[in-house]
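All the exercises in this workshop are built on plain-text protein records. Instead of coordinates, the fold is spelled out as a row of discrete tokens. Once this layout is familiar, the rest of the handout is easier to follow. The record below serves as our worked example for the rest of this section.
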Amino acid sequence: PPGWARGGIAPPDAVASIDYRELHFRLVRPVRGVGYDSRPPRLLAATGGADWFIAVKGLYARRQGLADRLVGAYPARFSKVFSNDVVDVYRVEPPA
């Protein structure tokens, strides 16, 4: 994911993730932390208007479940642009 993110996510774009600590370390850029609230409206609010949402797969089941819940609750707001065995990368669309 770091290679794709470095080339696919422009430096001024904001990135949010439930796995923000791990991604900050790997991407060497700020990543907004999304907490562990199970309510989709609060998860969406925690993205803070980020341009990108990155969900790490296979690291922590609870985090992955929360990311799936967020994306599943707002399919029109999250467009998957990259996926592999480790991450799903979504472009966060503005509200309609």
